[in-house]
Design goal:
- The chain is mainly alpha-helical.
- Helix content is 42%, strand content 0%.
- It has 2 domains: 1-85, no CATH class; 91-145, no CATH class.
- The protein has 5 helices and no strands.
- α3 (95-106) runs parallel beside α5 (131-144) and α4 (111-120) packs antiparallel against α5 (131-144).
- This is Nephrocystin 3-like N-terminal domain-containing protein.
- It holds the Pfam family NPHP3_N.
- Keywords: Repeat.
Length: 146
Amino acid sequence: GAEYDSRERQPHPKCLKGTRVDLFNHIYGLLDNLTESRLIWLHGTVGVGKSAVAFTVAERMRHLKVIKETTSEKRLVGTFFFSRKYTKRCTTGYFFATLVYQLASNFFSIWDDVNRAICDNLALIDLDKSLHDQMEALFLRPLRSL
């Protein structure tokens, strides 16, 4: 239920067309810059529209490919929406499991690496496992093999 287009999050918060143009231009500029990190941390007070902005960006990025020549690998690697209201989304326990599933689904070239990491150490998908250990084994090592 933490992915941007989950049924649990309906109705999906969206920005109206023509609104927040400067913000979107800034975000898309960052995402299109291949020399910079394309991880964006969106923050602000409750009710300012963070979820609507994030959903709108995710919706656009979902349709873009990593490179024109690829047939399957999309630019949207994964999403996770935290929520105070839902037990599985108000802590970090499901964070890496949710993201790594999306990552491996979008980039089949690392599916075997992720699967091997989990088979070698089932504790990696334990909700109480160290986030550092999960990040290293489930994300960084597979990504390094790209």
